[in-house]
Design a protein that fits this description.
The chain is α/β, with parallel strands linked by helices. It contains 19 helices and 13 strands. A four-stranded mixed sheet has the order 12-6-11-13.
């Protein structure tokens, strides 16, 4: 844990001093900007920049693709590049990275830009849920307009549920409803290669641990992200529930088993994901009429979801802030999102009318309106400046508990202690 805290401190330290060392932005021209993104999204952003240049041909955008396996690696790379004088002007950053950049003082507050261009922005901003618009307001300052976002919901396999004689789940179902259905699906399992499971899950912060904590009314952190929330009784109930799915009720395969592979083989009833699994299932030729989506269950039937919101913040050291702001506005604009983001379905557009277009497509599962609807009640994924250290700690302790290495009490106690230590840095 000390090593993880040291890594986080190193990142923040580098970021804090980067501004004093050099201004970023690799272009010699006032109309050239550098846009950074994860290399996994390079092709997507190349296409988006092509669309941008159809309208703004005088702004040259160089894409800096960063090969990073985590937000910690992404942050370290960008901070090092800025200190070396080759950093970006603007970047694609999700919730998990926004706070560390903002808290470091590295980002340009955008409130004055938004106020100045209010007439231009009003149509797009009014088409976004308020919860999304406020996602990157940190300590009273706005650091990014929302571009895309994701939630967590449950995909259900109609073939599996039909074979078990079960009705399809509906909004307002409970964790007990979920468990009962999983048990029914798996009741004839023999331990063989053709067993059918209720649910499969990963050791993952956003897609497993936080949404199930949310379902039980708990969270990894408290409401203002100043302390661990894993000491709450509800947090223990959530972890116990997931442990029991594998080890007690035997309705889930071992931790980390590919849910989507079992799903397309009609050997899995439920899997948790966001909109991006629509594209996965389509690419795996799984018929859209054979699956549906429904909000996550909760202990009392209340609608709950975790959400993560992406944006394109501008770095304070940029030499070309106006050009970078032009790109930021474009990526969040109603016109662009309706015309382009409705074709590439890996995240939910921030603009509701664009999300509505997606939901009405023939190759989208029925009830797809639930994706955008969760914006109004969704809770931001806990991602303070110490996110990298906290994520590593949570995954380690959750994994040790599910594997039977630590007891529930031990795993949660370790997580609480070390998360609180990380938050003090």
């Amino acid at each position: 844990m000390k090593r993880l805290i040291a890594v986080c401190f190193s990142i923040v330290f580098t970021l804090c001093f980067a501004l004093a060392l050099v201004a970023c932005g690799g272009g010699d021209s006032k109309n050239k900007i550098v846009f950074a993104c994860n290399s996994g999204y390079l092709l997507d952003f190349q296409e988006r920049i092509e669309e941008f240049n159809k309208i703004y041909p005088d702004i040259e955008v160089e894409i800096q693709a960063i090969n990073a396996g985590s937000w910690g690696e992404m942050l370290q790379t960008i901070s090092t590049d800025i200190a070396s004088g080759v950093g970006p002007d603007i970047a694609d950053i999700a919730s998990e990275g926004m706070y560390v950049f903002a808290k470091s003082g590295l980002l340009e507050p955008l409130d004055s830009y938004i106020e100045r261009d209010q007439e231009e922005l009003v149509e797009s901003l009014n088409a976004m849920d308020e919860n999304l618009r406020n996602a990157h307001v940190i300590d009273g300052a706005t650091y990014s307009l929302p571009t895309v976002w994701n939630n967590m919901c449950i995909y259900y396999n109609k073939n599996v549920l039909d074979a078990a004689g079960l009705d399809y789940p509906e909004e307002g179902w409970t964790t007990q409803d979920f468990l009962t259905m999983c048990q029914k699906v798996a009741e004839d399992n023999t331990g063989g290669n053709n067993d059918v499971y209720g649910y499969a899950f990963y050791n993952a912060y956003f897609t497993t641990i936080e949404p199930w904590l949310c379902a039980f009314g708990a969270s990894i952190l408290n409401d203002d992200w100043t302390a661990s929330g894993l000491g709450d009784e509800a947090a223990g109930e959530a972890w116990q529930f997931l442990y029991d799915l594998i080890n007690t009720y035997k309705v889930s395969p071992k931790l980390g088993t590919s849910d989507v592979d079992l799903f397309v083989q009609n050997r899995l009833a439920f899997m948790g994901s966001g909109l991006w699994y629509v594209e996965n299932l389509r690419n795996m030729d799984f018929p859209v009429e054979d699956h549906g989506v429904v909000p996550f269950p909760s202990v009392d039937g209340t609608l709950r979801s975790v959400i993560g919101v992406g944006g394109a913040p501008i770095f304070k050291a940029s030499k070309n802030k106006e050009a970078a702001w032009t790109l930021a506005k474009f990526l969040s604009s109603k016109k662009f999102q309706e015309e382009y983001l409705t074709e590439s379905i890996w995240a939910i557009p921030a603009v509701k009318t664009a999300a509505d277009i997606i939901a009405q497509k023939d190759d989208i599962p029925e009830n797809a309106d639930i994706f955008y609807e969760s914006a109004s009640y969704g809770r931001y994924v806990p991602a303070p400046a110490q996110y990298t250290a906290i994520e590593s700690e949570v995954l380690r302790d959750f994994g040790a508990y599910i594997a039977g290495i630590d007891t529930l009490e031990t795993a949660l106690s370790k997580a609480v202690e070390n998360i609180n230590l990380a938050l003090m840095e």
